[in-house]
Amino acid sequence: MSMHCSGCTGDHQQAATDRQYRRILWFALISNAGMFITELVAGTVGQSLSLTADAMDFFSDSINYAITLAVLGLSLNSRASAALFKGICMGLVGLYVLYSAVSHIIQGVVPQAHIMGIVGFLALITNVVVALLLFRHRFGDANRQSIWLCSRNDAIGNIAVICAGTGVWLTQSGWPDIFVGLGIAALGLWSASTIIRKSLTELRTQI
């Protein structure tokens, strides 16, 4: 007579899912760190606010993926605390971009459209791949949701950067770049507030 544990199958499936999720996070961490360096250099050389904003998003996401890998499998309280920290980081990135936008407006900077287009397209490919890999893992606690929101926001931001590059090329003005940079900042601030609210709710339920 064989003994059957009704939870065993579920446990094995969950373990397999977590292993898969961990591999995806490692891929996302490495690719985001690489794109952070690429866009930071390109944004500086091309004098593009939207590329710099997107680079800071990649940096924030790299931190997010690293923290998520560290707390994966830990208690809900630990994961919620990590999500709260990540939400704060995302908010700070948004505020930095707002500060940079004011500087670009004052200086009247006109970025290099071709650099924005090429690097923006490369970043878009990277983020679409990561977003597709993370799509099935988009639901769950605040920590897991924050990862999905980051990848989704970046893909949207990359499309906007490409559009901004086209706008700069057509108008020979820096305003399309500034508008997109501000849009990326606003999206980051909105996502940060969403993550912070959910993580605080989860932390309160653990008290």
| Average pLDDT number | 80
Radius of gyration: 19 Å
Low-confidence stretches: 1-12
Q: Which percent range describes the beta-strand content?
A: under 5%
Number of strands: 0
Assign a percent range to the helix content: over 70%
SSE string: HHHHHH
Please tell me what the overall shape is: globular
Helices and strands: which structural class?
mainly alpha
Describe the structure.
The protein has helices spanning 8-46, 49-71, 76-107, 113-134, 142-171, 175-205. It has 207 residues and is mostly helical. Helix 3 (76-107) packs antiparallel against helix 6 (175-205) and helix 5 packs antiparallel against helix 6. The radius of gyration is 19 Å and the shape is globular. The chain is built from six helices and no strands. 86% of the residues lie in helices and 0% in strands.
Topology at a glance:
Blueprint: H1 8-46, H2 49-71, H3 76-107, H4 113-134, H5 142-171, H6 175-205
Helix pairs in contact: 1-2, 1-4, 2-3, 2-5, 2-6, 3-5, 3-6, 4-5, 5-6
